[in-house]
Amino acid sequence: MKILIFNCICCLVCIFASCCKNNVRQDVTDESQTRVSSGMKYVEADSLLPPLSIEQQEDVRQIKILYDYLRVEDNQYVLDISETEAAKIGVSDRIYRELVCSIEAGNKMIDEQITAGVDMEVLLPDK
Predict the structure, then answer these.
(1) I want to staple 15 with a disulfide (CB 3.0 to 4.6 A). Which of 32, 70, 79, 102 is the partner?
(2) Among the residues of 43-122, which ranges form H helices?
(3) For the segment 89-106, what is each residue's pLDDT rounded down to a tens digit?
(4) What pLDDT is recorded for position 125?
(5) pTM of the model
(6) What is the largest CA-CA distance in the chain?
(7) Taking a C-beta distance cutoff of 8 angstroms, is the pair 105, 15 a contact?
(8) 70 and 80 Cβ atoms separated by less than 8 Å
């Protein structure tokens, strides 16, 4: 059960990340940095990712704004802000629409799992 919830959250995070073209990387705190073995030498995983472009950084900033309006209702993700309101707080129409499409795709996957008889609870991923 916990694995299924974790997998659903991972899928949703991947869907959200797809809103930003190319690679999206999350900020990693010093306490939780991931290390990757490269032969005999360990390197920080964050250093293996290319830096985000200015456009990608702006996309991530806008997605973070919208994340504050994301909630769960009846095992479905809901974005609780209109496109007009989102534009007023600095979110582009493109980012808003891409995120809505991602949420709809995630909700469809959740519905398919529930229809298949999987007992699950939908949670918001940590920020």
Answers:
(1) 102
(2) 54-67, 83-88, 93-115
(3) 999 999 999 999 999 999
(4) 75
(5) 0.61
(6) 53
(7) yes
(8) yes
The terminus-to-terminus CA distance of the chain in angstroms comes to: 22
Give the range among 24-28, 43-47, 94-98, 108-112 with minimum mean pLDDT: 24-28
What is the chain's Cα-based Rg?
A: 17
Q: Is 91 exposed, middle or buried (0-12, 13-18, 19+ CB in 10 A)?
A: buried
Alpha-carbon gap, residue 108 to 4, rounded angstroms: 15
Q: How many C-beta atoms lie closer than 10 Å to residue 78's C-beta?
A: 13
Q: Which two tokens stand for residue 91?
A: 């979110």
Beta bridge partners, 78, equal: 71
Contact 15, 104 (CB under 8 A): no
Q: What token pair was written down for 28?
A: 């990693």
